[in-house]
Write a structure and sequence with these properties.
Layout: H1 3-15, H2 20-32, H3 46-56, E1 60-64, H4 70-81, E2 86-89, E3 104-107, E4 116-119, E5 123-125, E6 130-134, H5 142-145, E7 149-155, E8 159-160, H6 163-174, E9 181-184, E10 189-190, E11 198-199, E12 206-212
Parallel strand pairs: 1-12, 2-3, 2-4, 4-7, 5-8, 7-12
Antiparallel strand pairs: 5-6, 6-9, 10-11
Length: about 220
């Protein structure tokens, strides 16, 4: 018997539960077939609901008819805000024609000195105006968390109604959960100092969303 098995055996004996295998089987069965609790009914168009909720959280929102138009939309946003032409990019967006937009982008994880990060997203949640990003080799979390400005491309076909729908989509398409899931609801904010809301204290102070696949 290993030290680990001995310790766990003592724990089971101490709590008086020796039916470990049966309890684990029941727990795994529940995880395999999750039961949803009560959820809100979202009336109307999910895209418009997402846009309204995102804007209420201090995100700015633009839209383009196709993903290929996104680089030009990013360039317009950066120029209008005087935010420069340089950005770090997640690998899932590398095939877009960034050179034609006049931007200087590089695919790599972000560092403290980077001012602009551009990412995609796994999906977006209309109920709360939230993005769901998955960490991975091509989608490092630093791109959305370290720069002062985070720009995200959001395919309208990937907007779901609720958080439960987002997790269901994750299970259906990915099976296993990646190392990190990041839910982003507008710019970073805190109210720690005299309950005054400050944007950008622990992450991006600007979040700009570009909806792709929608008539702008």
């Amino acid at each position: 018997m290993s030290a680990r098995e001995e310790i766990l055996g003592r724990v089971r004996a101490g709590v008086g539960k020796d039916d470990f295998a049966a309890r684990r089987a029941r727990a795994e069965a529940l995880l395999a077939a999750p039961v949803r609790g009560p959820q809100p009914v979202l009336d109307g168009d999910l895209v418009q609901r997402f846009r309204a909720k995102a804007e209420s959280l201090a995100s700015s929102v633009d839209s383009v008819s196709a993903s290929g138009d996104a680089p030009q939309a990013v360039a317009r946003y950066l120029a209008a805000g005087g935010l420069g032409r340089e950005a770090v990019l997640t690998g899932d967006l590398a095939t877009l024609d960034w050179a034609a937009s006049g931007l200087d982008v590089v695919v790599r994880p972000a560092v403290d000195a980077d001012k602009v990060g551009i990412s995609g997203c796994f999906c977006a949640i209309a109920e709360t105006g939230t993005l769901l990003l998955l960490s991975g080799a091509a989608t490092p979390a630093t791109v959305s968390l370290l720069p002062e400005t985070h720009i995200a491309l959001v395919p309208v076909a990937r907007i779901v109604a609720t958080m439960e729908d987002a997790f269901a989509l994750l299970r259906a398409e990915r099976g296993s959960v990646p190392r990190a899931l990041n839910f982003i609801s507008g710019p970073s904010r805190t109210g720690d100092i005299e309950q005054t809301i400050v944007l950008g204290a622990h992450g991006p102070c600007r979040v700009h969303l570009i909806l792709t696949g929608e008539n702008s």
